[in-house]
Structure formats: structure tokens, C-alpha cells
Design brief:
Elements: E1 8-13, E2 31-36, E3 40-42, E4 50-55, E5 61-64, E6 78-85, E7 91-97, E8 103-105, E9 112-115, E10 120-122, H1 131-134, E11 141-151, E12 159-161, E13 173-176, E14 180-185
Parallel strand pairs: 3-14, 8-12
Antiparallel strand pairs: 1-7, 2-4, 4-10, 5-9, 6-7, 6-11, 11-13, 11-14
Length: 187
Amino acid sequence: MSSHFGGGFGFYQVDGSAPAARAATETDTPLELRLHGPGAIGTKDPIRLEVVFANTGTGGLTLIDAMDGSLEHWRDPTYDLYLREETSGTVYRYAFVGGRCGDINSVGPHDYVDLKPGETRANVQGDWADYLKSATIAKPGKYTAWVVYRFCTWQAMGVLLGKDFIRKETHMGMHASNAVALTVTVH
């Protein structure tokens, strides 16, 4: 993240490179994220993106909703929303930058999502990733948006409130959605 920020929730420039969006001609196994969006919004309008999670594998798939600490990368899974400004090529990630308490909620049985082979489900990410629908883009222009789901570790930062309920069959890996073009106009 760029060291130049005002703090709070918003899109911050990515230092280095970001994971690429999945090409429209590619499939991802065993988990495919399919991103849908409105195509055009105003600068004050919510982004209203919808992520559909598809089990493209041959076995069941267990995922976890976004958790307290996911947005800040204090714990996996993360549901990162990336935005590339097409004029400059600058890539941003939606994040929270600033102070917060050091506590994070533990994973409970209700945080898991199970997908059968061939099953799809919209909005698996839950309430902790509501920014996928509510974020705004303040600067008019042409953008490309994509989402990356990552679950690679059970380790967490901060003070864990309770003990994690761990299901060992939880799918680990990183998966990027397809890209969605957005035109943002002054509203």
C-alpha cells in the first residue's frame, strides 16, 4: 500500500504488483470466482459487485466467509477488491488503513460454506466483505475491477477472541475472478 493515505476505508495504491485477474477464456479448478458488475456508475454510487463462487472440481469444497481482520490482512481468508485505472495503469486495493482495536473474532462453525461439485453460490464472502457492494470510486474514469480470494494459513494477527473452530478439509489456495470493466462518471 502506498504510504500516502488519508486513512480510513478506501482504494489505496498497491506497492509492487497485484495478483492478475483470471482471463475470460480461463477456468479455475476447483474454485472459480465469477464477478458481475453494473458496467457504469457515478462517483457517489456504490460499486454493486457480485461474486459467484463455483465449485468446478469433482469433490466437495469448503470455504470460509470473510472474517474480522480479513480486510486488513490480519487473517485469512482475504477477499481483496482490486481496481486498475485504465488511463494510468495504476492498481489500487480496497482496504482499511488506520487504527483499530487489536481483537479479532474467532472462526466458528457458522463461518463455513460448503459447495457440492458443480454448485454455485453468490456472495459467499458474508458481511465482513460488504465493500464489494458498497465501495465508491471518487475519481471519474475507466477502470477494471477484480476480486482475489486467498486462504493459505490459519495463523492470525491480533488477539483472538475465543478459539478457532478448524475444519481441516477447508480449501487452501488463491483464486482470482474475471475482470469487470467499470466506467465512472461524475454524479
